[in-house]
Specification:
Blueprint: H1 5-28, E1 33-35, E2 38-41, E3 55-60, E4 63-67, H2 73-86, E5 90-94, H3 100-103, H4 106-112, E6 117-120, H5 123-129, H6 131-145, H7 152-164, E7 173-174, E8 179-183, E9 186-193, E10 201-206, E11 211-219, H8 230-241, E12 247-252, E13 256-257, H9 258-276, H10 281-292, H11 301-315, H12 321-326
Parallel strand pairs: 4-5, 5-6, 6-7, 11-12
Antiparallel strand pairs: 1-2, 2-3, 3-4, 8-9, 9-10, 10-11, 12-13
Helix pairs in contact: 2-4, 5-6, 6-7, 8-9, 9-10, 10-11
The protein binds zinc ion.
Length: 333
């Protein structure tokens, strides 16, 4: 985004002033702009390594709003560098959910900007006592049992440290209901889904740009079912669909148009129907690839295949583990 010289010449001095402001602002957001004053720092999601979620930066009168803070220091550092280049403080962090690839960077961002407020659902409190506490135990056990010199150990230790940040990851302004709000002086709409991906998924719609930040309600190359309520997830996508957005930023993957989002939603519905039916796993995987493959690069097909192989077992577990653990009665926002 920016202003061409031709535009400036055509629209005169007043526009030149406004346009110059926009150009500076856009340039400072580091070349990943998807709309004036809104940039996406894409998270890396590759086979064999823990991912980072996408981070979205929004320019606001009170400073930058950061949606999701990443897992690894290298990812979070990109946000800090963007803020420094912009000469703007980070005024607010919005976490779409508590998974470490979206929330672990909070500690680093808040160390640099202690006055920033953090908006997120309270589901992280339950996660720190439940899912993340269990995960921490597994990590410590794996560290103890690893052969001397195992290269994995430092990765596992770093995960334990991220969980141990505890309090520094929590919201200062809990999101307890969906609705319009003002964050750092920018008017935004927040949604809250209790029965979708994590027990407390926040999404954000910016009416000025018609950009919707979906968090892991939309992920590519595949939906991530680890803590999901599968049928509730589809209902949450209906609420996203009802928003007047032009561009949707997923938790992982490239931004999607409305049409592409509709295709994702249909593909997720087909995948859940396939998982509930009699077809073999390869047929369900092939159907997903047929439905969704042009929403992500061909290089991610192996990751999509191996992930779905795992998730289809989870969706088909005879004890309906996901629904029992992660779907609560009356759980919509
Ligand atoms: Zn994620």
């Amino acid at each position: 985004m920016g202003c061409s010289a031709r535009n400036v010449a055509a629209i005169g001095l007043l526009a030149l002033v406004a346009c110059a402001g926009a150009t500076v602002r856009d340039a400072l957001l580091d070349g990943d702009n998807i709309a004036p004053g809104i940039a996406v720092l894409r998270g890396v999601f590759v086979s064999g390594a823990q991912p980072d979620g996408n981070t979205v930066l929004l320019w606001a009168p009170g400073g930058l709003i950061v949606v999701d803070s990443g897992r690894h220091a290298t990812h979070t550092q990109r946000t800090l560098s963007a803020a420094k280049a912009a000469g703007q403080p980070i005024a607010a962090i919005v976490n779409t959910h508590w998974h470490l690839d979206h929330v672990a960077g909070n500690a680093r961002l808040r160390a640099a900007y202690p006055r920033s407020e953090v908006l997120a659902s309270d589901a992280i409190r339950g996660a720190l006592d439940g899912f993340l506490a269990d995960y921490r135990k597994q990590l410590l056990q794996a560290i103890t049992q690893a052969p001397k010199g195992s290269p994995q150990v430092s990765t596992w230790r770093a995960e334990v440290e991220r969980i141990d940040a505890g309090e520094r990851l929590l919201p200062t302004r809990p999101v307890t209901a969906a609705g319009d709000t003002v964050i750092a002086g920018r008017r935004l709409r927040l949604g809250l889904e209790h029965n979708a991906v994590s027990g407390g998924d926040v999404w954000l719609f910016d009416p000025a740009s018609r950009v919707l930040v979906a968090g892991d309600l939309v992920t590519l190359p595949v939906p991530l079912f680890d803590t999901a309520c599968p049928h509730g997830w589809l209902e949450a996508l209906d609420r996203l669909q009802a928003q007047p957005f032009d561009l949707l930023v997923p938790g992982h993957g490239a931004p999607l148009s409305r049409l592409q989002f509709d295709r994702y939603r249909a593909a997720l519905g087909n995948l859940l129907s396939c998982a509930a039916g009699e077809a073999g796993k390869p047929a369900c995987v092939d159907a997903w690839l047929r439905d969704a493959q042009d929403l992500f690069p061909a290089s991610e097909i192996p990751l999509a295949r191996s992930s779905l192989d795992y998730y289809l077992d989870l969706l088909r577990a005879p004890d309906a583990r996901l629904a029992k653990q992660y779907c609560r009665a009356g759980g919509t926002a």
